[in-house]
Structure formats: structure tokens, C-alpha cells
Amino acid sequence: MQENLYDKRGVSASKSDVHKAISSMSKGLFPKAFCKILPDFAAGDPDWCNIMHADTAGTKSVLAYLYWRETGDLSIWKDLAIDALVMNLDDLACVGCTDNIIISSTIGRNKKLISGEVLEALISGTQEFLDTMSAFGVNVQHSGGETADVGDVVRTLDVGISAFARIKRSDLIVNDIQTGDVVVGFASYGQPSYLNKYNSGIGCNGLTSARHDVLSKYYLENFPESVDPNLSPEVVYCGPHRLTDTVNYSGQDYKVGDLLLSPTLSYLPLLAEILPKYKSQINGIIHNSGGGLTKVLKFIGNKRVVKNNLIAVPPVFELIGSVTDANEMEQHQVFNMGQRLEIYINTEHAAEIIEIAQKFNIHAQVIGHVEDAQQAEVQVITKNGSYLYS
Prior knowledge:
- The structure is a single chain.
- This protein has twelve helices and 14 strands.
- The protein is α+β, with helices and mostly antiparallel strands.
- The protein has one domain (2-200, 261-389): CATH 3.30.1330.10.
- The strands form three sheets. A seven-stranded mixed β-sheet has the order 9-11-6-12-10-13-14, with helices on one face. A five-stranded mixed β-sheet has the order 1-2-5-3-4, with helices on one face.
- Strand 7 and strand 8 (252-255) form a beta hairpin.
- The model has no long low-confidence stretch (mean pLDDT 94).
């Protein structure tokens, strides 16, 4: 069973133990909001609220470490900085916050392995991304942070971001997904107008298993520090590839490292244009991070979301699918499979937000709809089968 393989690798697809640990905590002012919404502790204004969010680039930092050690390419760390940022900022955007955000970074490194040049690349990559977003009206201020040499705790590097914003309650998007809504999916791959290169569509979720399924024992033999020594060698680096290998999909060559290490695509410029015009028509926004295409389960109540017209699967997920033991049902629960952002809206306005996406060179389409049900369910229908999650 794949779930056992996840456990053997020290990770969890469902994070059930984490959810159990936090089950008694308050869910904030609006439990169905994508991020926890708090009263305005900053200024005490009842018309405003506070949002704080924290996340990391996860084990994608291990992939970046391997690529850097193998190629000497420091630019990969700039991409990793984007991963840590987007995992926070795009979650905030799902509750309507696309401006006036404060961030702080936390970097834990093993100084024996991670040089000062790496830190410089991470910091400059962070600022370059923030400058790009500012050009599209998304203003994020970097307040500094902490860089700690913690080799006894971190084997290579851990990169995290905390984000804080103060927003008017009237500007919030609180998920209230309705029967009859359509689901507009936005491609997680391609080259939006605000990027200078192709993005594969990979995010920061499921990278532990993707890394071990795709990459070969070469990395265990040459970079043992990239693996938890408590893991059995039978579940470590079981694949056929090195990061420098080239694979071909539909007549196009891709480097394995480029596919696995594309930074998580941000939709901030797109949402900054959509939200002022359509906030009152939008019933939900979901960022398909942990949980993949089942992420919406936490926010729908007694509804069934039927996803029967998915965006085409990009090469990175074809690559992972070709070497993993996980079946298609499991893959859709771990990865975004080509659509990382979903907006739940009425049919009338769906075409209009799809047109806005096209202006940014982001493919979008109606990928499904919402029905009544006895419990929260997601049904994913592909050419290979129909999969029901609850």
C-alpha cells in the first residue's frame, strides 16, 4: 500500500496526526475561510481583521541542495525562496488579501554544508520576487527574520516564511461554496506573462515521495546527508533518474531537475485583478496545496464537487506517474496534477475570469461543478476512471 510507503519515508499524505493535534484550537472568526481569520488585535477596529500564516518550502530544499551540489548552480536557491513565499502569499490571496503584507523569513542551516553564498541567493531571490509582485500592485514588505546555524537539528537547510496582514472584513473571501457553482481551474504550469521561463507546475507538496520515486541510488551513495538515516534504504532513491537527465514528452525535451524544481507558481497578479471586480460573485477560492485536488473537502459541508473536465496533465506529473507505485487516485490526492488554483463561481461570470487569466497567459477552464450530497465529497473523473474522496 502506498500509504505505508509514505509512512516508511517519514511523511504523511493526509497529516492526520497534525490535524488531530490542532483539533481543539479555535478556527478563527470564519471557520470556512481558507486561512485563519483573527480579530483586529493590531488596532482593535471591529471593521478590520488580522491574518497570519506560516509555511516552508518543505523537503523541496533537499532537491535544491542536490541540484546545487551536482551542478554548482546557485540560482536554484532563488527559486526555492519563491516556493517558501508562494506557499504563504497565495494562501492569503484565497481569503482576499493581495496587498500590504508583511513577511519574515526563518532559515535553519547546517553551516558545514550550506555556504554563505546560498544564504545570499535565498535573500536576493526573495527580494527579486517581491519586486516583481510590486510591479503588479501586490505590495509585500520584508521585515527581516532569523538565520540560525542548527546543524544538530537540520541536516541541510530549512526555509520558512511567516506572513502577516491586516484587511477590512468587507474585503474578505470566506468560502461559502454553493450547489450549482462551477469550478474554474487555473493551470499550474506554463509561462504566465510575469515569469521569464517555463514553470512545470510542481509545488511543495508530495516532494519527499516524488524525490525518492524519480531519483536514483546515486544520491544515496554520494549525498547521504540528504536522507534521514533512520529510513530503510529500500524506500530511498528508488528511481531511474539523475537531476541532470533529459526526458522527452510530446516531442519536447525537459531536464529532470527543471521539472522537479520549478518554483511554486504564484497567482497573485491574476487574483489582484480578479478580486476587485468579482469578489461579490466568488463563493470560494482554493489553493490546491496539501491534499491536491481533494483540498476543497475541508470547506464544502454537505456538497459534492465533481471534477470531470480537468486541465491536461503536464510533463512533471507524467514523469512522476511513470515511476511511482502510487495509483492515479492517490496521485490526485497528493499533487495538483496541473491545476493549482480553483475559483467557485456562477456560470455567468466563469467565462469572464477565464478571459482575465488569458491576459496573463494562464490557461483556465471550467473543470467541474458542485452538487448536493449527504457529506463532503470530491469526485475526480479522468479518462482512466472515477475516484470518490470523502
